[in-house]
Design brief:
- With 350 residues, the protein is α+β, with helices and mostly antiparallel strands.
- It is 33% helix and 23% strand.
- It has a seven-stranded mixed sheet, with helices on both faces.
- The longest helix has 18 residues.
- The radius of gyration is 20 Å and the shape is globular.
- The protein starts with 11 loop residues before the first helix and ends in a 16-residue tail after the last strand.
- The relative contact order is 0.15.
- Bound molecules: adenosine-5'-diphosphate and magnesium ion.
- Magnesium ion (MG) binds next to helix 2 and strand 8.
Length: 350
């Protein structure tokens, strides 16, 4: 009998990672967290832990250069990496940038990319310390590694959620996903009739959220000032439903999320309706908001109410209760199954 050939799609991204890494050789006790969180955590000689995280962006999968200015791409590539450092409650310090480019890119185009990279470096005070450059047959691939630090008392893992914790989210959700839908729609129109100019007026906020996301270090500062260290935290790259599953699975807990508590911007809501989608669907399943999802003790309720940009959207429960979205009329939707994804137009695996 021949060896079984398994298509990647049979496993999906997370099971694939699990399969490829479950037998990784292990040597060093200073690795506090390897695979399985937003960043790896290493005990170093300083009093802080070292945080290391990496992300890969591929042309045609993660970005479309027809509507993504290279400067924005550079900025976003850095921002999404720093968001993983933020998710550990850390401070970013250094990045490396690795780049594969085909001959269609000019030197000037790559300088644009680096302008964006440096704009993010300046905004978040991180230094570029290295990388790698190669040619490519198929457009651009960009990989950034971010290195940061965090005090051991301040670190937040995905696995720290406690029973009855409040589930909180920063900012608002769904805007980035709808920004992408708008860009994709205009792109399709443009392919058919290039003379039509796109009109994005009143939708600028959605485009900004898609093209120029910002890691929420401002909220981490506010939480720290209020003496709150979340019990568990993750950044929202793949959508709220996916991230609450990560926290619950890692923490061996369940959760109830209240649909009417999920923060949704007015332009997001209006635009969702235009796409025949409920605003909640966009907010719960749309990705790339790069907001933070965290859990913290009920004791912090009053302090949280005084922090702008934080919404309390649910609570952590016993794992036997599963992970549910509670709708206004009291009905519950299971968020642990993939069922609801059918509501969204097909999304690329990230
Ligand atoms: P995030 O969405 O926060 O970037 P991912 O879902 O990409 O996190 O990754 C989950 C975990 O799996 C992380 O710890 C990451 O470092 C690890 N990981 C992802 N891909 C690989 C790989 N090809 N080899 C080893 N570890 C990986
Ligand atoms: Mg992450």
């Amino acid at each position: 009998m021949g060896k079984k050939i398994t298509p990647i799609s049979e496993l999906g991204e997370f099971k694939l990672i699990e399969k490829l890494t479950s037998n990784a050789p292990k040597y060093y006790s200073e690795i506090i967290m390897g695979i399985g969180d937003d960043a790896a955590v290493i005990k170093s000689t300083s009093e802080n832990y070292l945080l290391i995280t990496t992300d890969l962006l591929t042309e045609g999968i993660h970005f479309n250069l027809v509507y993504t200015p290279l400067k924005h791409l550079g900025y976003k590539a850095v921002a999404v990496n720093l968001s993983d450092i933020a998710a550990m409650n850390g401070t970013p310090k250094y990045i490396t940038v690795s780049l594969a480019v085909s001959s269609k890119f000019s030197v000037e185009a790559l300088e644009q990319l680096y302008e964006g990279i440096y704009a993010a470096c300046k905004k978040y005070k991180v230094e570029l310390i290295g990388g790698d450059t190669s040619s490519s047959l198929t457009g651009m691939t960009l990989s950034i590694t971010a290195i940061g630090e965090v005090h051991p008392h301040k670190i937040c893992y995905r696995n720290g959620a406690k029973l009855n914790d409040l589930v909180c989210v920063t900012g608002n959700l769904g805007a980035s996903y709808l920004g992408l839908q708008l860009l994709e729609r205009e792109y399709r129109l443009f392919k058919d009739s290039p003379e039509i100019q796109p009109d994005f007026s009143t939708k600028e906020y959605l485009l900004e959220r898609q093209l120029k996301p910002e890691p929420r270090f401002d909220v981490l500062k506010a939480l720290s000032d209020a003496n709150i260290t979340p019990n568990a935290m993750i950044d929202i790259s793949d959508g709220l439903s996916s991230e609450i599953n990560h926290i619950c699975k890692a923490s061996n807990k369940g959760a109830k999320i209240y649909a009417h508590k999920i923060p949704i911007d007015a332009v997001t809501a209006i635009t969702a309706e235009e796409f025949n989608m409920s605003p909640e669907t966009a907010a719960i399943h749309g990705g790339e908001d790069y907001e933070l999802l965290f859990t913290t003790s009920l004791d912090n309720l009053n302090k949280l109410l005084n922090i702008p940009s934080v919404s309390i959207i649910g609570k952590i429960t016993d794992p036997s209760e599963g992970i549910h979205l509670v709708l206004n009329e009291g009905n519950e939707i299971d968020l642990s199954s993939k069922g609801w994804d059918a509501f969204l137009p097909k999304k690329e695996e990230t």
